[in-house]
Amino acid sequence: MDKNYANKSIHCTVEQCANHCCNSDYCSLDSIQVGTHEMNPTEKKCTDCQSFQLS
Q: What distances in angstroms separate CA 13 from CA 38, 39, 40, 41, 42, one per listed residue?
């Protein structure tokens, strides 16, 4: 994976993620998976980027 690639369609500020673009606030993946940890999500904080990988 090229961490210098900034996918301009996926904004991201999580610098601890291995997929974070090293020089801007974007993800370096072509696509991400978004999911939830709740049975009935009702707020933004109920969702998760399931593509997150600790760097």
A: 23, 26, 26, 22, 23
